[in-house]
Amino acid sequence: MPRTRLYRNGVLEAEGFPIADISGLIADEACVVWFDLCRPTAEDLQAIGDELGLHALAVEDATNEHERPKLDRYDTHLFTKAYSVQLDVASGQLVTGEVSAFITANALVTVRTDERFDIEAVVKRWDESPDLAKYGVSYLLHGLLDHVVDTHFDAVRSLDGQIEALQDELFEEKARDGEVQRRTFELRKSLVLLRRIVLPMRELVNSLLRRDLHIIDPAMQPYFQDVYDHVLRATEWTESLRDLVTTILETRLTIRSNRLNVITKQVTSWAAIIAVPTAITGFYGQNVPYPGYGHATGFWTSTAVTLTLSLTLYAIFRRKGWL
Q1: Which spans are transmembrane here (predicted)?
Q2: CB of 112 within 8 A of CB of 97?
Q3: Are 83 and 116 in contact (CB under 8 A)?
Q4: Full DSSP string of 220-283
Q5: What's the whole-model pTM score?
Q6: Beta strand 70-73 with 78-88: parallel, antiparallel or unpaired?
Q7: What is the pLDDT of residues 93-127, one digit of tens each?
Q8: Which of 98, 138, 266, 308 is the most exposed place for a label (fewest CB within 10 A)?
Q9: Domain 3-256, CATH class in plain words
């Protein structure tokens, strides 16, 4: 069922009224109306568009999924599209919720493609600051964008924690290379998706702050500036985490290369030790007379030389840290 709200002179006056009543309510300049549609059909949106005089391109963008966050300006209204995000810690995947909004002089229409966008959290923000309701649509739009940007910030913070845990796993004695590699690429994929969502928000909020456009009430400028600051912080944090994930990949390759060098030295050292008895027994295996030939002393002499040289090489390699 669609959600509806009516504010008159900055006071919440009614909720849950039929959408059919909206056209009569918005005729009163003292009224501000919000209503929300979840999974609307193209026919539903077209009917709303005809009633509110929405541009056909804006109505079409509301039905198209997976578009970039943006703010479009038309003669009678604005259209914006944004995404809330949430990190699934178990899988490392980013879950997104899409919302579109039509913004007129005294009406805000939100359109959601599914239930993943938490509209109840937005309503809660509005209820927590009823003193700002007197600023009309600017107040409603601020609550919507503030919730969206806060989800971006929470997702970046969660990714930061996961990447820090990943850094600790890199230097464990018994590193789980397969798990670390899989987790690294999952988080990197989520960061790429988050970057595609966060970066356009900077342009979106910055456009709203332009005073020459007269989009928002001047009294709400500081609140939108606060949202813009959060957008900048989320953007910078995302960029730094993206670089950090790249560093983790490079560090992991370096660590594996160092471990391979150690293993190579160990194998080479054991091969050198094994080569000593091989050489001696091969020499004594010649079918020619040699010292101790045909006597037990020859066997014991070769055995003593083999053990002495092998132990000497083992001690040398051990001292150099190759074994």
Answers
A1: 267-285, 297-317
A2: yes
A3: no
A4: GHHHHHHHHHHHHHHHHHHHHHHHHHHHHHHHHHHHHHHHHHHHHHHHHHHHHHHHHHHHHHHH
A5: 0.77
A6: antiparallel
A7: 899 999 999 999 889 999 998 889 999 999 999 99
A8: 308
A9: alpha beta
Residues 6+ apart with CB under 8 A from 226: none
Give 293's pLDDT tier (boundaries 50, 70, 90).
low
As a whole number of angstroms, the distance between CA 47 and CA 137 comes to 22
Q: Is the pLDDT of residue 81 over 60?
A: yes
Q: Are the C-beta atoms of residues 231 and 153 closer than 8 Å to each other?
A: no
Nearest to 148 by CA among 109, 181, 100: 100
Strand ranges across the sheet with 11-15? 11-15, 3-8, 31-38, 107-112, 93-103, 78-88, 70-73
The two three-digit tokens of residue 260, written as one number: 């391979």
| Residue pLDDT, tens place only, 211-223 | 766 778 889 999 9
Find where tokens 């850094």 sit. Answer: 167
